[in-house]
Amino acid sequence: MKIRSRSRAPQPPALPAWEVWCAGPGDVRLDLGQYWGKATQVAGVWIRRGFVTAVEAWIAESMKQEPVPETGGFCFGALSQSEDGYRVSLETFVPAQNPAHCSPDRLDFGVKALLALDAAAGEIAGQGLVGWLHTHPGHTPYLSGMDLHIHEGFFRAPYQLAVVIDPLTPDWDTGFFSRRPEGPMNNRAVGVTWVPWARVLTLSEQTQDH
Ligand SMILES: [Zn+2]
Prior knowledge:
Elements: H1 18-21, E1 28-31, H2 33-36, E2 42-47, H3 49-62, E3 72-77, E4 79-82, E5 85-90, E6 92-95, E7 101-103, E8 106-108, H4 110-123, E9 128-135, H5 145-154, E10 161-166, E11 173-177, E12 195-196, H6 197-208
Parallel strand pairs: 2-5, 9-10
Antiparallel strand pairs: 1-2, 3-6, 3-9, 4-5, 7-8, 10-11, 11-12
Residues 1, 134, 136, 144, 147 line the site of zinc ion.
């Protein structure tokens, strides 16, 4: 995936209290310590129900094409800090519409998608850019050299995440990549069991009922 770097990192609004923030039905909480131990500046992620279903719908659309191309978009949400690190909520998914290029192994957001991103950022009250998400159809969740180039150019804030989903695995293996305390991104790791997006969807449906 390729986008232009930009000079400023939008700041998500601070949240008043974690306890208040996590109260919504349909939310799914992920502890990133299960992937990265203490080597992560983001300790936990809350995924809102609307985010889960929006991502699922957007990727399902891409699966109708043959071969399945990469697709992606931007993650808006909020932020709080605790002793063990940042806590980030994924609340609104903004798909990258009309990418300049998309193929099974490459996605170029292009200028149109970035203009749409700026427009969206102005309209989503109370949320900031907390990361980006894209697919790796058939080539597993990890950050390629190009992905790292994008992240370092565009998502430099310590709380900003890169989410990568492989929609050609049965349950959509999903990697949540965060920054390590010393700065570089966590990446493909030996022995990590990825959270399947299907599991996130199921959990979200279950918590919605309570
Ligand atoms: Zn990639």
